[in-house]
Amino acid sequence: MNNPFKKILHHYEVPEVLKKKVLNDVNMIKLTIDVADLFLVKYPNTIGTFFLEIVKRQRKK
Fold first, then answer.
1. Distance between CA 52 and CA 50 in Å, rounded?
2. Residue 36 domain-assigned (yes or no)
3. Average pLDDT over residues 5-11
4. Number of other residues whose CB lies within 10 A of the CB of residue 38
5. CA-CA distance, 37 to 52, in Å (whole number)?
6. HSE (side-chain half, CA atoms, 13 Å) at 16
7. Band (9; pLDDT cuts 50, 70, 90)
């Protein structure tokens, strides 16, 4: 079987437009992951901790 990676041109310059598009896509993916982490992991943990503290304080009274 032929290795397709050997056919890649070694001294070929990638166009700037393509570089910007790829970097914008990667940044959008990172942003989406950060937003999902904030609202699906950190926010519920914070609310859960908040309510647990309220319950603990009520039990001490």
1. 5
2. yes
3. 71
4. 10
5. 21
6. 0
7. low
Asked if residue 19 belongs to a domain, the reply is yes
H-helix segments, 1-61: 16-37, 43-60
Distance CA 41, CA 28 (A): 19
Tally of structural domains, the chain:
1
CA–CA distance, 44 with 50 (Å, rounded to integer): 10
State which residues form the domain around 46.
Answer: 15-60
**Tens digit of each residue's pLDDT (9 = 90 or more) over 13-42:** 888 999 999 999 999 999 999 999 999 999
In a domain, 51, yes or no: yes
Say how far residue 11 (Cα) sits from the centre of its chain: 32
